Amino acid sequence: MRFMMLMIPLGYETAPADVQLDPERVSAMMRYNEALKDAGVLITLDGLHPPSTGARVSFSTGIPVVTDGPFAEAKEVLGGYWMIEVSSREEAIAWAKQCPASANEIIEIRQVQEMHDFPPDVQAAAAGFENLKN
Fold first, then answer.
1. H helix runs in 15-109, sequence order
2. Rounded average pLDDT over 91-109
3. Considering the entire predicted model, what is its pTM?
4. Nearest C-alpha neighbor of 7 from the set 112, 102, 121, 88
5. d(CA 85, CA 42)
6. Which of 88, 1, 86, 100 is nearest to 41 (CA)?
7. Could you tell me whether strands 80-85 and 55-58 are parallel, antiparallel, or unpaired per DSSP bridges?
8. Distance CA 84, CA 90 (A)
9. What span, in angstroms and rounded, lies between the C-alpha atoms of 96 and 45?
10. What SS3 class is residue 58?
């Protein structure tokens, strides 16, 4: 089972574009990342620049509307993610609990949808999906 662990750093929604990282925190996170890799569960991971450097494209009017960050209505934003492959939701939670997150960070765990999770008609509608991946 693949799970995405989403890092939600509280306050990151207002972080400036040139936010500075604490080298000690980065080192602690690297040790955690290496533990995931050494255990053979890590698929990929990335950190994300603050929302102030991003953009959102909304479609509520039927016409794409681009809004540059920061986003005033944002309460929580992603700071990064890990994609892991483990045998259960409980194992994903166990890995998240080992993260050296600070008091202002939350990790949301979401299982990745697999084609076999869907009924045959949905699988047929998504024919060729696997060919889109690297």
1. 23-38, 89-97
2. 95
3. 0.86
4. 102
5. 7
6. 86
7. unpaired
8. 13
9. 13
10. strand
